[in-house]
Design brief:
mainly alpha, 3 helices, 0% strand, elongated
Length: 74
């Protein structure tokens, strides 16, 4: 849903924006994978904690951004 919100705000260069979002998602995944593996592979707890930390960080970042929605005149 977040990707569609970001893409909906752009009117030009949607292909470049889509590529940038894809690279960002892959970069975050490649950074988190070794962190999860470093804390062990016997339980799901390291993965769950890493997901929880990422969700918390995204909520903090999302709440700090002010989004201006244009009004449509009818």
């Amino acid at each position: 849903m977040t990707t569609s919100i970001i893409m909906g705000n752009s009117t030009k260069n949607n292909g470049g924006l889509s590529g940038l979002l894809g690279v960002a998602q892959n970069l975050i995944g490649s950074l988190m994978s070794p962190i999860v593996g470093a804390f062990g592979t016997q339980t799901y707890l390291p993965m769950a904690l890493t997901i929880g930390i990422c969700v918390w960080a995204s909520l903090v970042l999302f709440s700090s951004v002010e989004v201006k929605i244009p009004k449509i005149k009818i």
